[in-house]
Design brief:
By secondary structure, the protein is an all-alpha fold. The protein is 41% helix and 0% strand. The N and C termini lie far apart (28 Å).
Length: 85
Amino acid sequence: PDGGGEPLLRDCACRGESAGYAHISCIVKYAQSRLDVCVMAWKECPHCAQKYQGRMALKLSINFVANSLRLPENHPFQLDAIEYW
C-alpha cells in the first residue's frame, strides 16, 4: 500500500521494479478520461497492451459497469458493458 493505504496492483505483463504497478483509482481515472474514445482502457494496460488479470480485471469491470450506467440511455458503451463482462 502507499501512504494513503490504497494497494498498488500489477496484473499485466509490465515488468521491472516499478513498472506496471498502479492504484485501481488511478486506472479508473485514466479510463474515465478515455471513455468517449476507447473501451479498451478499462480492459488492458496502456503500456504492455495485455488484458488485466485477477483482482485488477474484476475491480475495473465493476467500475466500468458503474460508469456505463451513468451514460445516456443507449450509449454504445452500455452495450459494451454487457458484451465484454
